[in-house]
């Protein structure tokens, strides 16, 4: 056996061991999510494992942040997209440290894919409500106990490319803050590998912030789970008032300058 073949065989053997261990961890996580949060998981389903990662990440974040939820909450998911993870998010919020009544709302721009996915979710008798359109037109001041924002960071170039309006972070986050109750929780999830988590600098009153990597080896595992998942993401939870206007201004200058250089 030549040196090249030896290295290839060793690399493949190592990768197989890692993937087997990752699969074992995923199966354990699926069973725990089903048992603890009342979510019915049908496999094979490409959305189930990424959604379980979301639940696991939120569980860790709420634990480290020592977050206690009231018996009744209203929650907004800003930029919900096709909301493939909605049953898991709803299950987590309902059953985190005791049962509670949850009103879960999402908002995003309408698309055929998003609307089709929502119809499928509602057939499962989930109590979900979606607002279609611009977040700035959502007049629900002081309504929400929790506001989620997952992978919603974008500069002027990408907003234009996607056909959605660009708002400076200071304006956007100040408006989101106005939608929440005085003690509202703001939960932001961002891609760590793309530097998107730099947005966390815009927030104060942080309860927790960390990088989430549930599986064994990033170089082998992330390509399987990263495409629609929450593997290798970072999460930050702040309590209102959470907007740091000076930090927002510095951040928006950086992303606008970067857009000007790249595009």
- The helix/strand order is HHEHEHEEHHEEHEH
What count of helical segments does DSSP give? Answer: 8
What's the overall geometry? Answer: globular
> What Rg do the Cα atoms give?
20 Å
What is the name of the CATH architecture? 3-Layer(aba) Sandwich
User: What topology, given as strand order, has the largest sheet?
Assistant: 3-2-1-4-5-7-6
What is the share of helical residues?
40-55%
Please describe the biggest sheet, giving its number of strands, its sense, and whether it closes into a barrel.
7 strands, mixed
Give the domain tally: 1
Question: How many distinct beta strands?
Answer: 7
Overall pLDDT, averaged? 83
- CATH fold-level assignment: Rossmann fold
Q: CATH H level: which superfamily?
A: Vaccinia Virus protein VP39
| CATH level-1 class | Alpha Beta
Cα separation of the termini:
50 Å
- Spans of at least 5 consecutive residues with low confidence: 218-224
- Strand residues, percent: 15-25%
Q: What structural category do the secondary elements indicate?
A: alpha/beta
What secondary-structure arrangement, pairings included, does this model have?
Layout: H1 3-37, H2 48-64, E1 72-78, H3 86-95, E2 101-108, H4 112-123, E3 128-132, E4 144-150, H5 156-162, H6 169-179, E5 180-191, E6 206-212, H7 218-225, E7 233-239, H8 245-262
Parallel strand pairs: 1-2, 1-4, 2-3, 4-5
Antiparallel strand pairs: 5-7, 6-7
Helix pairs in contact: 1-2, 2-3
